[in-house]
Amino acid sequence: MPGMSPRETSPAFTRRQFLQAGATAALAGAAATGQAFAAAPRPRSSIIAAENAREGARDWQLTRVRVDREGFRAPWIEGYCSRQSVPAGESIDIMVSANPARRFRIEIFRTGYYGGRGARKMMEAGPFAATTQPTPPPGAKNLHECRWEPATRVTIPADWPSGVYLGRMTTIPEAAAEPYWQSYVVFIVRDERPADILFQCSDNTWQAYNRWPNNFSIYTHPKGNQGPWADVSFDRPYGREAQWQGIVNDPLTVGSGEWLCFEFPLAYWLEQHGYDVAYCSNSDLLAPERGLKCKTFLSVGHDEYWDIRQFRSVEKMRDAGVNLMFLSGNSVCWVTPYRESSDGRPNRIIFRGGPYGGDNAYARNREKNHGPFPHHGPDEGLLMGARNVEPVNGGGDWTCVKPDNWIFAGTGMKPGESIPGMIGWEYHGQPATEIPGLEVVAAGTAWVGGTRPQQWAATVYPGPKGNFVFNAATIWWAQAMATPPGHVLPWSHWSRPHGPDERVQQMMKNLLARALK
Fold first, then answer.
1. Residue 69's domain is classified under what CATH number?
2. Which of 162, 190, 218 finishes a domain?
3. In whole angstroms, what is the distance from residue 93 CA to residue 482 CA?
4. Over the stretch 493-510, which tens digit does the pLDDT of each residue have?
5. Cβ pair 356, 377 in contact under 8 A
6. Per DSSP, what are the bridge partners of residue 327?
7. Where in the sequence is the domain holding 297, given as residue range(s)?
8. Disulfide-capable partner of 274 in 49, 121, 261, 360 (CB 3.0 to 4.6 Å)?
9. Residue 361 DSSP SS3
């Protein structure tokens, strides 16, 4: 169970008492649902269903959150984790700062379906002391790497299932008239078990767009917003929803990266329907072994930044028979090398190293317009089935062009029928027609700036071992799956998705039925 930091401020609350309290709370939670924690892994395909049969939390969202005048951070209480992902049984440090200094408590929730509540409370700990920790000055390439002291260390219990976990931090008022403030930290619990579905979170892109502390991201270097000039570190809090304000302008996501806005609706739907899903970060696929244990791989939301080792891993997965679904847009766009943190932890700093695209004109144009770049990647279209295009942002309707394809079975869709607003705000186009058997299943126009036309295309092609690769060609695919608690629909370029659509849900069922047979 979670260990106490030396920063804990109640001398009467010993480590032993804390461990006993955590164990008692865990057992009480299990008893409330009529279950005990498993001593051994459950059989495949039952883990997620059993987990979601447990009682969900009524109170897991941020209730009181405050961002500063610039809108990039919540200095009243903010934090980050020492690792993007952690296996059950290992530990993760949580670094926290509060201005003014305050005591706080932390509650950790696993996000999922849970009878429609969206999360389950896994533990609560504290009170802890949060000092006002320093905002790092810009380093080389405008790097902001916090070197904060941990407020606590959490050892992940062996029976916590893979998932995306939110730690909700709440300040403890020192006087009756003083308000409390909240924000999140986010981390992934991963596992190595064979699973039907491997859900890759797009956390490289969360961090690339993160503008904490005051407008410092991959996009904000004075030399230009598309070059290799800026480094960003995972050792800093996620500020207000990391994408440009106006796409999702929701302060209630502070600290959660882009999980709640772009990816959670799909995870919520998968867990609602009992699919056997495990979760990983981008950095967990630098080698293919994890993915090779699964039947299908999902890239979800805005999955723009990939280390070249990720690309080669997913290639190997496809060639070995793993089904690939790019339920995402603007994916595999930039080669994104990792390097270690200042204290030697791996995969904690990234930058835009160069374009994917091989010798395609759009990749050469990126080099001409934004380079020189030190890295260049292969043609992502030969992996995904469709490519990134220039311009790559806009909004539009997702329009069926081949209703006799198996993807559309049971949807009733006709040629030219559209899912309103589901293209955005970035997408894929230029199908890789040189791939044998590739089919364009949906295509149409995205409107850049609301008025300038750009073409997009969704594709499917057969893999070498009876598997397939599907490219939905939009960041907003997940928006049509569900509207879970804590989620706000995005909009961009004067276009917006409408939320859950039974036709898209049926397509998802068709894709998974074929992938998991």
1. 2.60.40.1930
2. 190
3. 32
4. 999 999 999 999 999 999
5. yes
6. 300
7. 286-515
8. 49
9. helix
